[in-house]
Amino acid sequence: MILNKIIGFFSSDLSIDLGTANTIVIAKGKGIIINEPSVVAVKQEKYGQQRVLAVGHEAKEMVGKTPGNIKAIRPMKDGVIADFDMTEKMIRKFIEKAHGRSSLISPRIIICVPYGLTQVERKAVRESALSAGAREVYLIEEPMAAAIGAGIDIREPKGNLVVDIGGGTTEIGVVSLGGLVLSKSIRTAGDKLDKSIVDYVKKNYNLLIGDRTAEEIKINIGTAVPMEENLTMVVNGRDQVEGLLSSIELTSEDAREAMKEPLKEIAEALKEVLEDMPPDLSGDIVNNGIILTGGGALIRHLDKYISDIVKIPAYIADEPLLAVARGTGKALEEIDLLQDLSDNE
Predict the structure, then answer these.
(1) Which helix (H) or strand (E) holds 193?
(2) What is the reported pTM?
């Protein structure tokens, strides 16, 4: 125990929200120090070797714009590691950036993972961090981290329901007495919303757009319910009939129609969790409402959309994009909380 305290004094412990879209790193005692896209740009070299050129913001700028020998890779897909090697390289780069190479001892790291990850996937996350230079690795599940980050006192004997809509997964969790009473994870979230916009624009306007443009549409004019005043946005792409560059004007009603099915899937998953709710917790959820976190919570009027379907008030957490990261960071600050919540088999 004393040795651990001495080691902890010289190392800078980190918490990592390893998201499909963004990776957020928090250093103990310093708060958020990195918030960058989960993207790695690599250059193909001789004999099949790959050299990492950039990670994060710099790498994302290269997406869709690279020459043949440079690839921009998103190593996380649907909340899990799709490319083990690239994830390890990305984590290593972020650790180096976080420490500025100044730490004497490897950090202890806590990483947030989606609920329902298989043991094989958990092992892949843990080994990626260890290979990237971590001294010790803890995993905690996203619904719990989201609840902590949203300001919920998870140790109270009260039920709270959190819906975290990230990039790859939507995590739904009922938290009480420091544990997850009910949880559900579906692979319908931000990425699927973007894809549905790409498909809608292609089908209805014969215009081919990329994922980045779809994300901009979602952010700028996306809405979950009809709006009194329609927002508009000019979108550039390639006409799939003539093959020429073209522009169209989309409205918020277009965006709502495009996102209708994925949002419905999220609402259906939430209804399933509510149907399985223990009776003693049901009253708490009705009183406390549903807390929305993650980037998806920023879609206009999503709280009203959810509330209208399940007939329970829904609220958007403060800074929903950072809720999971802040919850993971708080677990790192409180060692007893970290040990209670982590999955460190």
Answers:
(1) helix 190-205
(2) 0.85
